[in-house]
Design goal:
It is a single chain. The chain has six helices and 22 strands. A hairpin with a 5-residue loop joins strand 17 and strand 18. The protein is elongated, with a radius of gyration of 55 Å.
Length: 459
Amino acid sequence: MDGREARAADAGRGTRPAEAAEKTLPRPAEPAAEVAPGSPESTLPRMEASESGRKRRWPWIVGAVATALVLFLATRGGSKEKAPAAAAGKGGPSRAIPVVGVAAKTGDLGIYVTGLGTVTAINTVTIRSRVDGQLVGLHFTEGQLVHQGDLLAEIDPRPFQVQLMQAEGQKGKDEAALKNARIDLARYQVLLQQDAIPRQQYDTQAATVVQFEAALKTDEGQIESAKLNLAYSRITAPITGRVGLRNVDPGNIIHATDPNGLLVITQVQPIAVVFTIPADRLPAVLQQIRAGKKLPVEAWDRDLKTKLATGTLLAVDNQIDASTGTVRLKATFDNEDAALFSNQFVNARLLVDTLRQAVLAPAAAVQKSPQTTFVYVVKQDTSVEMRPVDVALTEGDVSAFRKGLSAGEVVVTDGIEKLQPGSKVALSSPAGTAPPAGEQGGGAPRAGTGGSPPRKSRP
């Protein structure tokens, strides 16, 4: 027992890593046979202890290796994503940004004043009967365009024909009485010369002649009145215009005092537009009017997308509306295609002046910053330059420039949000337009000028 304990102690000092394992191993129940030092049997307990320690440590080793592998892959992926951004930030090579560009040009730009207006008929007539009677016929179609003098309706003419006959009969009776009175007057004149009758009898007969002459004039007036009523039984159009919806159907008894009338005729050719403009724009308008110029006016739809008609300014109101700060103007339009309708709301654009030979470019190219107004100009090497500009006027989608831009230079109109000064671009022209003239980058054609169609810039 003493020899075995000594050898175990010597072995424990030489195998400290397995010391804890050996302490946990159970001792054999029976005394083991004595083993010679250096034999294979003497090293067996130490090998069993080392294998037990390794079995307990391997889950921790595997977990550490897996964690390291995950961290490595995550770090590598992040570096790959940051590499292009870092390269771009350092000015390294990057893909050209697709944009749409338009070349600036020299031209004229109209100065317009726009106001909301209402189409107003120059003449509107409510057709009413001028006599009482039964409506026996209508000779128009609702919505029809009628001309002055066209027959619209008929009232029963027979009562007026009877009145005419009575007036003509009374006139014949009075004519016969006048003739007899004149003959008697001639006889009394001869007798008066012979002193056969008193002077009073002659004067009475002369008065009777005058009385019958007056009655005859009354009869003539009655006849003309009956003829006029007979003419009024045929209702005709007083103006040329469009007929509205009828208010009375045939067969009804109508009166001259009916408030609604039979129908309404609205003149549509020509037609007027009454619109308002700000009072501070009035001096420029009056200056052109005093110079004797006829100012053109355009009528557009509500969305200012479709031009309906073109006319001229007719008049300016004599006072400014103090509540709105606007003044009313009136323009006339031929309206040959009937594009304007009475009481229609339109946008009236009054051409006040024209800016001649200005540098023009799309308004979409103009950008604003807190410091300046600028455009992106495409240079010969397909890079862009941020150019400060001075905008003189913007009308619709076109801007005129005082300085900062020259005719022929290409400005970017779409894809601006992706640009920075010096960015490389792939230029294309707007859909439906020719590509900008010229070539860029040492003779390389611009995007959209080759065999393939131009690409549209992405939003």
